[in-house]
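Why do we care about 3D structure at all? Because function follows from shape, and shape follows, mostly, from sequence. That is the central idea of this module. The next example makes it concrete: a single protein chain, its amino acid sequence, and then its structure expressed as tokens.
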Amino acid sequence: MSPLHLLRLPLLPLQHIIQTWNIYEICQFAKVSKRTKNLVKLAVKKTAYIILNNLENFQIETTISESGSMSLWDTWLFKMKDVSESDNTESEAYNENNRTHTFTLVSENPLLRFLETLKFLFEVFDCSIHSVYWNSWNSEDMRQVIDWMNGCDKLTKVENVRFCLNVNNQMTLALFLGTFQKKLGRLFLHGDVPPQGNTDLTPLNFSIEMERFSNFGSARWVNLPILMSMNTCKSVDLGVSLLTNQDLNVFLRSWKEGRSNSILEDLNAAVPGQEDWKTVLNGLRAVVRHPTQVTRCLKQYHWYYGGVDIQRVDGKIGTVMWTHYFGKNEHEEIPKNIIEVFEKTKQEWVGTDSDVVFEERGNEIEVSDEEEIIEQHLPENCFNFTFVVWK
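And the structure:
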């Protein structure tokens, strides 16, 4: 049988053949010439989701979407090794357990090979970077990758960035926050560093545009200036912070006056010490909404009854979740002990010099004779502070 000369085929059947290949075969064919690269671009109209990592070596993990969503089954992993660590040959391995195809690429400059491969993938596929794990990168390598991202016109947003924060790698987090210029979906921080009084913490400024910030563990390095620097972040989940009751009041005043955190949609933090709501709400002319008066939804599945409303200078309402009820839908009956707590709290504030107004009970939302078991899963000696801004 004579060999099939691919490049002699008409465009349509050639496109169908290319579409049956895996990502590595497509890349190898595209590297042959400018013509083959252009053919691949015409044939491969698929999204390639990319994950970047640096464990023992630089890694680019790719998954091609067949249906528009990310598949978790077939992964194509490019590993970059120094020529001194291998026999100077490119190799392929397949792990049937997790359906991962691994291609080991050797080079005298693995970082350069990493960036060249990344650039090539963006040229051939409709790429998006799903995640970047910065845990093991040194500052210089990290800076070069960030420079490539900033200069890539096809890259407009990175969905997720993850750091395992410790006392030894704070500089890399500061470097990322200070140099990354694209949009960011979510920044995850894991791990812990001691409070600022116990260590020389690298100054951090959260000026990059991100949708969500999530800290898993303790964020005892987050103080009031850092929180107020998060002006371009919509959703903030701090875990245990360094914030105080007075800090929360300053933050809310600044938000109310339109001086900071203007695009914030929700904030959650565990605040050390004893809660002092008279300090937190001082001077804000807040209105404590009765749980039977108002029901509002956050992110389609969080329903809040009541809360403490604060009006910003532009008319937008932000609500501190105190003396409220959290439900699963908008048609629940309020447990009677929630109402009892509200009324008791209201009586405690009567006669004080606070400018906070407590709303009267409404009739639209019914009260149940049942009682809710109120559980708070919080670190010891902390209270919960949740603030939601309604659209």
